[in-house]
Specification:
alpha/beta, 14 helices, Rossmann fold, N-(1-d-carboxylethyl)-l-norvaline Dehydrogenase, domain 2, homodimer, about 290 residues, 6-stranded parallel β-sheet
């Protein structure tokens, strides 16, 4: 018998991920209050009134929620997962949240005999729909082995990074590098544009050398085309860099460029660009 | 008859570049005072006492010098190139200097009937030795066409970017992106290391997603291996970012991340790391 999976959070990412679990043959249980519940029900998912009943009848509970407070509330709040989840079950949070919160959930669930994994993803809506997400996993090796077939129904590049929190730390690092690289390309393109240099030619020649990056390739193209349809939204990247900065504070690491890019993203939000793709950072660099 | 080339500046880069011109069959003329003159003479170059005589007898004069002041002095100084170069000759500066200086040289040489190209390179010593440099060229199309066979004896990825100064602007942008990306990887690796995450595993998973870059690949590996043998030295990268910042000032562009990385490089120099590879920026981010 395959594991029965309770899936909480049916947004842009969660809905296609849960649909892929159904396609792979899992019994999927969702909440009536979730946004995408109708599509899931049509595809064969069972619908539950509340978290308590859902968690009590699931072998694996997966959360895919906006941020740390939402995940915390669903797990540790009144009638949350923690109150009803069966001993021996597995809890997997696939949201992007603070590593410290992930470690705390691992701790409190562990005290109830429930293993927990932090398994944030990258690859966006396209990756979620095509079951080709990258999944960065923190937690015990045994829990990872148990979850692997479930991950394989949703992603391709699935790596067990280390102990609890390691998945979220890796995701934070990913978002730092992506954000700072966008800033780098935005500054270079702004300087070149003001100097009258052809950006498309410059992008091409730089892609042939040490400045090469997927960001220069894809987000550089977006900047040249002024195509800022998301993609990954400015406001979400700002949230992710806050996680990185908060983690840096806890570990006493100075993250100067990360902080600078967070400020730049804040400026982009103040300009009214929070719903645009993160390559629209260019618009806040390339102004005066 | 092939063009007679006067080559000024036989350092780590200039020497192998001049040797490659000899290999390609060019008559190469060098200065007695240049560091690498003996090797060039052995390979068949003619040796001259001073810039004036060298420039007067060359069809093409190439400079490969440390910075803007040196190039300026060689061209516009007493008994410099400008005083003796023949009308109809071609001047090519392949050093990395300020775009504004390149444009000024183009101007003053043009007034003497001499076309000028700014043609900075990337690819380092290895690229210079193997004649596989990337060459970013600014100046008139006719001058570019004339110089192309000469460039092809030294490089592979040869692109005419735009008018005078465009090559140097592109090089400045390259150095900005490379420097900021190194900073990005250094901050991510520092955070991950303090959090106890395996850096090699993290590098691997991040190379599979949007954080992918040649810097994460090669310089990330150097940081993990603590291998900071240059490569490209911290002090040279600092010089190049100064050019970018000066250009930004002239064009009234705010380059916040570039400035931040320049400060970080300055810190690395104060730590005594100026002769190390630029990936050693990691050492100044990852301290405390």
């Amino acid at each position: 018998m395959m594991d029965k999976i309770g899936f909480i959070g049916l947004g842009i990412m969660g809905k296609p991920m849960a649909l892929n679990l159904l396609k792979a043959g899992y019994e999927v249980q969702v909440l009536k209050s979730s946004g995408g519940v109708q599509d899931l029900q049509n595809a064969g998912a069972s619908v539950f009134e509340d978290v308590k009943t859902l968690a009590a009848t699931s072998d694996i509970v997966i959360t895919m929620l906006p941020d740390s407070p939402e995940v915390n509330e669903v797990v540790t709040g009144t009638d949350g997962v923690l109150n009803s989840i069966k001993e021996g079950s597995l809890f997997i949070d696939m949201s992007t949240i603070a590593p410290s919160v992930a470690r705390n959930l691992y701790q409190v669930l562990g005290e109830k005999g429930v293993e927990a994994l932090d398994a944030p993803v990258s690859g966006g809506q396209v990756g979620a729909e095509s079951a080709s997400l990258s999944i960065m996993v923190g937690g015990n090796a045994s829990a990872f082995e148990r979850a692997l077939p479930v991950f394989q129904a949703m992603g391709k590049n699935i790596i067990h990074i280390g102990s609890a929190g390691a998945g979220q730390t890796t995701k934070a690092c990913n978002q730092m590098i992506v954000g700072i690289t966008i800033q780098a390309v935005a500054e270079a393109f702004t300087l070149a544009e003001k100097a009258g240099v052809d950006l498309e030619k410059m992008r091409e020649v730089l892609l042939g050398g040490f400045a090469q990056s997927r960001i220069l390739d894809l987000h550089g193209k977006r900047m040249i085309d002024k195509n800022f349809k998301p993609g990954f939204k400015i406001k979400l990247h700002k949230k992710d860099l806050n996680i990185a900065l908060e983690t840096g504070k806890q570990l006493e690491v100075e993250l100067n460029a990360t902080r600078q890019v967070a400020t730049q993203l804040e400026k982009a939000i103040e300009m009214g660009n929070s719903e645009l793709d993160h390559s629209a950072l260019y618009l806040s660099v390339n102004q005066k």
